[in-house]
Design goal:
372 residues; two-stranded antiparallel ribbon; 8 helices; 41% helix
């Protein structure tokens, strides 16, 4: 790795010669600008506004533009002569716990390498002191024309330095948080915790840039004259209507992705359930509403569950009982009608026999009178 800055770490009265190298690199795919009609490169040229001539890099300097547009030239010698102790020195000003550094301040990352054999021992001393104290060094240094803030910590056997933004360079998060009053229930927090536990840890080394890989495959295919098939767009997250249902589905999907056999949500949701008789009535009402909302189509649906079968059997028994009762009523009516008919016939016979008996008696009386 090529050093970008040479200087020393000032550690009290100890000075450690070091070389500063970049700890990170950009792996993104870079593109060039072209003319779409003929494929020609589009290049930027630095042209002087006064003579309209292109200027080479060696003749380009820097200047500060004043409020009225006046250019004030500033040379590298001017900057090097500034009375700053940090122009070639990383000056450690304090040792603090890492938790006191706001992650929003972290900027670039660098490795500090010992510059020469004499620097090995003081370099190792500082490294081991940082390890044992479990603290980080807060330092000031000058790089690329301005003074910066840095944090020194140990990575493996190397001292690394993170460039930090000054506190006044970090914006306050005013007006960013939601304005609406939102109430989060314990059951929702329990499900969120269950989802976090299900996702678990991840090996950072296993993560990679899928987009960059897809771009590289696209470039390789176009270079070979092959057209790639369009890939389906990833399913986007729809509008969340029921947060509890979304959390439960997320937990279940995460467990299935990890290969867990039991993908059940075990988060307690007792806060959402009513107790006592009210719970019984509420459960019964829900079951009745569910039965009415999803009727079973015909006898086949009734056979699906024991409850449906029992209901169908009771309904059949009621119908049979009703038929028997109707038959009994009809039989009773027929019996009553027969009795009424028989009674009428008897009455008619009696009524018919009475006159006959009266005539016979009159004939006997008349015969007796004639005999006398």
């Amino acid at each position: 790795m090529r050093s970008i800055w040479n200087g020393a770490i000032s550690f009290g009265l100890v000075s450690i010669p070091i070389k500063l190298v970049n700890a990170t690199e950009s792996r993104s795919v870079s593109f060039r600008q072209i003319h779409t009609e003929d494929g020609g490169r589009i290049r930027y040229r630095k042209v002087c506004e006064l003579d309209d001539q292109e200027v080479p890099q060696a003749e380009i300097g820097k200047a500060y533009e004043d409020a009225d547009g006046t250019m004030i030239p500033i040379t590298d010698e001017d900057l090097a002569s500034l009375p700053l102790p940090t122009t070639k020195t990383i000056d450690i000003v304090a040792f603090v716990p890492a938790s006191e550094i706001d992650p929003l301040q972290i900027d670039g990352a660098y490795y500090l390498a010992a510059n020469g054999v004499p620097a090995a021992k003081p370099y190792t001393l500082l490294r081991e002191a940082l390890k044992r104290s479990k603290k980080v060094g807060l330092a000031k240094f000058a790089l690329r024309g301005r003074e910066r803030l840095g944090m020194l910590r140990v990575v493996d056997d190397v001292i690394a330095m993170h460039g930090l933004l000054w506190p006044d360079e970090v914006r306050r998060p005013e007006g960013v948080a939601p304005d609406a009053d939102v109430t989060i229930r314990d059951a929702e927090l329990d499900l969120a915790d269950a989802l976090m536990d299900t996702l678990g840890d991840v090996d950072v080394e296993s993560l990679h840039d899928d987009y960059r890989q897809a771009v590289e495959e696209l470039i390789a295919a176009k270079a070979e004259g092959v057209e790639l098939e369009p890939q389906p767009a990833p399913a986007g997250g729809g509008k969340v209507i029921d947060l509890m249902a979304a959390l439960e589905s997320s937990v279940r999907a995460a467990k299935e992705a990890r290969g867990d056999e039991a993908a059940e949500v075990s988060a307690p949701v007792t806060e959402l359930k009513p107790r006592g008789k009210a719970a019984t009535r509420k459960t019964a009402s829900k079951e009745a509403a569910g039965t009415a909302a999803e009727p079973a189509p015909g006898k086949r649906a009734a056979r699906k569950t024991p409850a449906g079968k029992a209901t169908a059997d009771r309904a059949t028994a009621k119908k049979a009982t009703a038929k028997k009762a109707t038959a009994k009523k009809a039989t009773a009516k027929r019996t009553t009608a027969k009795k009424a008919s028989a009674t009428s016939a008897t009455s008619s016979k009696r009524a018919a026999s009475k006159p006959a008996s009266g005539k016979a008696a009159a004939k006997k009386t008349a015969a007796r009178k004639r005999a006398s």
